[in-house]
Amino acid sequence: MTKKFLLISVFFHCAIAWSQKPLHNFSLGDSAFLLDGKPFQMISGEMHYPRIPREAWRQRMKMAKAMGLNTVATYVFWNLHEPQKDKFDFSGNNDIAAFVKTAQEEGLWVVLRPSPYVCAEWEFGGYPYWLQNEKGLTVRSKEAKYLGEYRKYIKEVGRHLAPLQVNHGGNILMVQIENEYGAYGNDKEYLDINRKLFIEAGFDGLLFTCDPAPTLKDGHLAGLLPAINGTDKPDEIKKIIRANHDDKGPFYVAEWYPAWFDWWGTRHHTVPAEKYAYGLDAVLGAGISINMYMFHGGTTRDFMNGANFNDKDPYEPQISSYDYDAPLDEAGNATPKFMKFRDVILKHLPKETKLPAVPPAKPSAKIPVIHFMQSASLFDILPVPKVNPTPLTFEDLNQAYGFVLYRAILPQATSGVLKIEGLRDYGIVFINGKRAGILDRRLKQDSLTLDIPGGKATLDILVENLGRINYGPYLLQNKKGITNRVLLGGKEIKNWQMYPLPFTNINGLSLKNKKPAKEAPVIKTATINLQTVTDTYFDMSNWGKGAVWVNGHNLGRYWNVGPQQTLYVPAEWLKKGSNKIVVLELIKPDQSELYSAEKPVLDKVSGK
């Protein structure tokens, strides 16, 4: 062997050694988790990578460290990563492997929750819409088509994330199968199929399930750690987990709620820190591991909010802000709750522990008034329609989210009641371009009286998907658009044109700058030059209903019914110089100025 070759060989093997990260062992003791054989108490906080701009992931993680957390938890969202069948996306804000690696760089462990069903106040509970186009497919079941799609998806997740488990040199401590399944069913064979699919996908470390106390026995699979949700009473936690785990621990609260989420038309939920600090203190003092849901909520953008619905309550679509009254607010700033919980956590850390200083709040400022000089009626930018005798659903059109305009020609004047059977979820009705009324599923509205002028008339119904149901038995009834017939005066209207308007890419919009027809939904664009860039909030309280984009980023929905009246604009998505603003306004087309605010308004309900 030559001296030169020897040097190259030594360098090569050293490079391999340097690049390898230490392998750890994470296991279950009788009463505690064991990290490399030593007791380890997880003090964890939930935050979801798609609800935070990728550019801000690291800042949020530094805030987690400053509060005393040693772990972060996140779901994995199937509908983000496989938006269309067999087309996977783990890029940009969807790059969860980068999220996990960033956590490791910041000295944080990760609890991974890649159950195909996540709930999470997320569209369809995380399921991709196209599953509903697979004939006979039944989610959360042993049905063959579902398991086939599930297998392909979880194997793709495993390809990206299984190498990041703690036993492979990464920082993923453990992985959750399914999600609160006991509230939905009790099929242990189905749960065991879940377990096997995860192992097949490469998740060979510690697996667990999580459920609220009343349904834990139904959602738990023997042999896996049962985690409990929604309680901070140490005796109850230990009793229930022992009863389902061979009279052993360790003890883990997988979801501990320091507050709650909001939906349109109802008050903003807040809970004083003092109400929960005592419970956090008790859990940590008992040596129990905990994950607060949420530590940081962020924002649900890109029409990805979910909805609740059952036989007793109306349809309740969730708002865009996922502030959650969490310890870290929507913009990533420490709240009084953060400081109170930090004090509690510090009590239970080794005495020599010094937490990082809490960074000051990020700068936030008003920006100059935005004047919209260019606009176009939605009716002037319609794509090529799909034609069918009866209305087609979003799923029929292979469209996930957004809007569909349904158009029919009425051959003669007809007055009477227009009834839309199965409106999902919000419909604006026009006759010859003039708004005739609005129907809202939240208010159980599906009919209105029309007085149509003489001669042939054009009936337009603009339908918005306000969010698929994310919890409960109605997961199986989640199609969007007009899902049944449309009747006028008791007679079915036939021969429809459907115009898909998903608004997945607004950069390609070509506005003709015609004066919009009065009352027609409009697209408005403006540019604003900024000398300095900070967080800000768009004040939408004078607008009606719609969505806003900044430099191509969807900020979420707004709706004057509240409680959310502002949209958070992250500094990371603004830039010095020219910034492009796009607004889709559905019901107040005359608005032409957009103001901003330094702080959010999340608690102003202005009506139904």
User: What is the class of the largest domain in the CATH system?
Assistant: Alpha Beta
Distance between the termini: 82 Å
The CATH topology of the largest domain is what? TIM Barrel
Cα-based radius of gyration, to the nearest Å: 26 Å
Query: Could you give the order of strands across the largest sheet?
Result: 4-5-6-7-8-9-10-11
Instruction: Report helical residue fraction.
Output: 10-25%
Q: Superfamily at the CATH H level of the largest domain?
A: Glycosidases
Overall 3D geometry? globular
Question: Which percent range describes the beta-strand content?
Answer: 25-35%
Low-confidence stretches: 1-19
- Describe the sheet with the most strands: 8 strands, parallel, barrel
Please state the average pLDDT score.
94
